[in-house]
Amino acid sequence: MPSLFRTVLAATALVALLAGCDSMGPSLKDSAYAMERSRAGLVRKEISLPDGTHVVYLEGGSGAPLVLVHGFGADKDNFTRVARYLTPHYRVIVPDLVGFGESSHRTDIDYHYAAQAQRLHDFTQALGLSRFDLGGNSMGGGISMSLAAQHPQEVASLWLLDCAGIAAAPPSELAKIVTTTDTNPLFITRESDFPAFLKFVMSDPPYIPGSVMNVMARERMANQPLERQVFAQIATDSVDASVKGLATPTLIVWGDEDRALSVGTVPVLKTLLPNAQAVVMPHVGHAPMIERPQLAAEDYLHFRGQLATR
């Protein structure tokens, strides 16, 4: 679920597209990411956890720390667009989860929600964060809820964007496809899968040059064995029992056209989380922070403003 590239179509990109030059893809992707990060005031950083695991993350802004967690098959740049509207208010920190992006790709560890949450906690501890706000999309939402349940005194609030990990949720289109066929729309097995993947996870996907999509597809293809390992674990995992009654103030955001996780999850979440409020975005899919970054940020800032007046 990548970042917006529309504004990056300068002369270099245009030449690449007209020439059909796939070799321009990596440099164009790097240029697009660099521009989006710069606009958001984010800087790439890295750190090693006590067990030697390497984590790469983005950080920018000042104020109360806000940690944002990407979903399955994604990376830290999924939050770059929305971070542009958040760094004026908060110290935004966006890691690549272990197994994804530029962080360590380990096949020897547990990827269930509780284990990933503890690993994320190791990261926040390494940064010296004793109390922080936490947000997550999809799998990242499940991890965020699990972390809040494990360490409620450290997580000041939750921002859940189309979050996974709720077993009591109605089955989604993705779940029905996975259980009734031998396919998974989230996996990329060849370059030509990527456009369909974008259309599946987003109702209004950003424009991405074909050469860049091919680069992103190849990155996903290279990580597919680990992705399959992770998906097999989280597909049968849930955080329902651990988060039931969790009092952490929570903003739930969902796209009403989400095909990966049913919007019917929203009322289920509200029964589990007594201090939750919800926003359902029309004509939005699985990634509101990419499809509607400014609106998603405005809703979040309003939520945080309400908390400040309590």
UniProtKB/TrEMBL annotation:
Coiled-coil intervals, chain numbering: none
GO-annotated molecular function: monoacylglycerol lipase activity
Family annotation (SUPFAM superfamilies): alpha/beta-Hydrolases
PROSITE patterns: PROKAR_LIPOPROTEIN (PS51257)
InterPro entries: AB_hydrolase_1, AB_hydrolase_fold, AB_hydrolase_sf, Epox_hydrolase-like
Statement: the UniProt record of this protein carries the keyword Hydrolase: yes
Residue ranges constituting the AB hydrolase-1 domain according to the UniProt record: 65-293
Keyword Flavoprotein: no
Annotated GO CC locations: membrane
Protein's UniProt name: Alpha/beta hydrolase
